[in-house]
Structures are given as structure tokens and as C-alpha cells.
Structure prediction request, 74 residues.
Amino acid sequence: MMVRWLIVGGLVVMIGLAGTAEAKTVRVKGGMTKSGTYRMPSNRTSPNRSKLDNWSTKGNVNPMTGKKGTRNPW
Prediction:
């Protein structure tokens, strides 16, 4: 009986981990824009084809600001 619960618990954890995407952080240099305004250095997620791991997507939280994502991933 205990073995069954361990197996079920392990499967639940594996399924939960498989659904998460880890966004890597990329540093963006500051500098002048074409319009002449200064843009501060910042961080963003590394570019990829997924919309699910962007900080602005619903269900994600920006680790730098703590702000929750509001954009629909689809």
C-alpha cells in the first residue's frame, strides 16, 4: 500500500515538473535609442520560440520585479 502511494506521488511530481519551463535570464546593455532617449540596462528571458516561459505570460512571475504575467500565451 505504501509503495503504491510512493509511485503515485512520484508520478504527480514528474508530471508537474514536465509542465514547467525554465526561462534563462539574458542581460541587455543600456544605451541610446534612435530617438535620443537613454535606455537603462535590464534583464529579459532568452529568445526562443515558446511564449509559455516569457515573464509577461499568464502563470509566470518576473523574478526581478515580482510582477505577475498578464498576457495570454495563445
